[in-house]
Amino acid sequence: MILKFAATIYNGVMSLPQGMMVTLKYFLKKPVTMQYPDQKWVMPARYRGVVSLIFDKNTGKHRCIACKNCVKICPNYSLAIETAVGEDKKWFPKTFTLELGQCMFCGLCVEICPTKALEMNKEYELATYTREELTRSLLP
Ligand code: SF4
Ligand code: SF4
After folding, report:
1. Concatenated DSSP letters for the chain?
2. Nearest ligand, CA 74
3. Predicted TM-score of the model (pTM)
4. Tens digit of each residue's pLDDT (9 = 90 or more) over 41-71
5. Contact 78, 103 (CB under 8 A)
6. Ligand 2 close to Cβ of residue 74 (< 6 A)
7. CA-77 nearest atom, ligand 1
8. Where do the domains of the chain lie, and which CATH numbers do they carry?
9. Ligand 2 contacts CB of residue 138 (under 6 A)
């Protein structure tokens, strides 16, 4: 009985330095936590974020020819395009909207685009306060 009591006391006393050793071990290691939102994740190359048009850095132009392939292939009607014909007799998207609340990030629209005009960007902070904010224009 006395021996069991002494063992309990001993274990209790020894658990304190054992716990402190674990604390010390992690205190000296590089932290794995990130100071979000001051620090942001760099998403992997194959991460599928929001569908967006690619704009040329020099000309500021996109490659969309308003063929509507992306609209047709989208399984849940997340994309909508209004088309028009320019002075050069070429079709272009007058409006191009994405219903982000419906999009399931499948990437079919990006795959089907004949001019590689679309990409899935690296955006990951997608929460909004209203549904209206989830309707996005892909054009500036
Ligand atoms: S990623 Fe998929 S669901 Fe989203 S707009 Fe493209 S085709 Fe539609
Ligand atoms: S498939 Fe590509 S080129 Fe055709 S409308 Fe969509 S973004 Fe534009």
Report:
1. -HHHHHHHHHHHHHHHHHHHHHHHHHHSSPP----TTTS-----TT----EEE-B-TTT--B------HHHHH-TT--EEEEEEE-TTS-EEEEEEEEETTT-----HHHHH-TT--EEE--------SSSGGGEEES--
2. 1
3. 0.80
4. 999 999 999 999 999 999 999 999 999 999 9
5. yes
6. no
7. 8
8. 51-137 (3.30.70.3270)
9. no
